[in-house]
Predict the structure of FAD-binding PCMH-type domain-containing protein.
Amino acid sequence: MQLRWAQRTILSWATALIILSYVQALPVGLLKCLKNIRSRSESSLVTPSSPLYDTNRIGFNSYFDHRPRAIFHPASEEEAASAILCAAANHVAVAPRSGGHSYEGYSSGGRNGSLVIDLSQFQQFSLDRRNNIATIGAGTRLGHAYTRLWENGEYLIPVGTCPSVGVGGHGLGGGIGVVGRKHGLLTHNILSMTMVAANGTIHTVSPASNPDLFWALRGAGGGSFGLVTEFRVQAYEVPSPVTTVILTYKPDKMGAVLSAFAKQGKIATEDLSATLYIDKKKIEIEFTYLGSQAQMQGAIDPFIEHIGEAPFQTEFEEGTWFQAATRWGQRAGSTLEAASIGNMTFYHRGRSLFYRDLLSEDEVGVIEKYLQNLPKEKTWGYILIDLWGGKIDRPSEPSAFDNHKGVLFSIQFDIFWSSPHPPTPGFACEACLKWSADFVKEMQSIYSSGPILEAYQNYIERDMPDAFQAYYGDQLPRLRQIKKSVDPRNVFRFPQSIPLP
């Protein structure tokens, strides 16, 4: 590995010097520079004059209407390096895009005028069954990752349930998933990465090579330090069977369900993962258990006993791991087979908070108030609560996510609204945005989990008070120094990127 890294670094430096001298000699702008570096027919360039521009620039959330200077789809790391140098020479910010699911539209730059480097062609995959290490391209969607791991010997990696999310942003910002309590976050299971830096060099980043950057990328690496094109990830043989269950309660049991979720979550087996879904009409506890239905029943009985009432509906399903992943993927609004779809028309506002203990009665009351008073427009508002803990608190290597050790659960505050006809990028439901902002501000004002707000960086939001503290804690000074060492000209930037010192 060290020899390979040294050879690649020497070659990439030579490539970078040649390209940089060429770029700097050009009396042309960004678009012509990008056109001049296309060396393979598989790469593509989308510009504002292209008929594909208006569909290609929109990611998961059509609420964001950012207009990039261009969208480049490289077919190799060398082409990506050349595009980065073109952007740097023209003083244009670079925005990496893996799946396009940034909650603030940062994968399209977070504002107008960026160069988006889309990684959708980085679909490489291999699995070394001698050491259970999967090599996965950064443009791979989670649904495709599930499928390829299953087809190559029934393996898994700890990732989330939404099939269209990209591996890149998911893993660099944390990556909570259905086996997180058993195996940790995706970021904890990254063993090494390939990254294209702002100066065009291509690096292998691992504990032995670039250890500071390895620490920073895992937890704070979503677009601030460089373009990650490939991950080497610890994979795990899939247990059999796997059981899923959905327990459904009526909204008047919210206080009891929330209490049970937190109290029993502290002592639950790591084979059990849990997500709590609450809207104005129902409460659903979604469990996944790495074992049989009989074993799962014993694991969830304490939850039901604490609530003090049996659910009015119970749906068990015992089967394979792949069947469980497919079930949750379909509930997320897609299928594993359709995971490559990127330009879906959704209008969405999402926010988050982390909690280290039970919610107070006041916080439960605020949740009830807002879920029962949604805007009158065609909307879908809810909260999702994911149980953390277990192996998440015991990573094998330090990372920039370590300030969140000890978190008991996260709350995601979500609202979707209907699109006009035809769908219009940037369409805003003002009542929905106000509902979202007021809901979270009221929760923040009575935050019971410590003197400083704490939130999940993969659900990033511009309105978060003292956002860098909420996402990275006291690690920001170290992150800023690492940023300076790899990107001193701040080529990789967006409204909430790690700032230079």
Residues 259 and 446 are 17 Å apart (CA to CA). Residues 1-27 have pLDDT under 50 and may be disordered. Residues 125-237+478-486 form a domain with the Uridine Diphospho-n-acetylenolpyruvylglucosamine Reductase; domain 3 fold (CATH 3.30.465.10). The two ends are 32 Å apart (CA to CA).
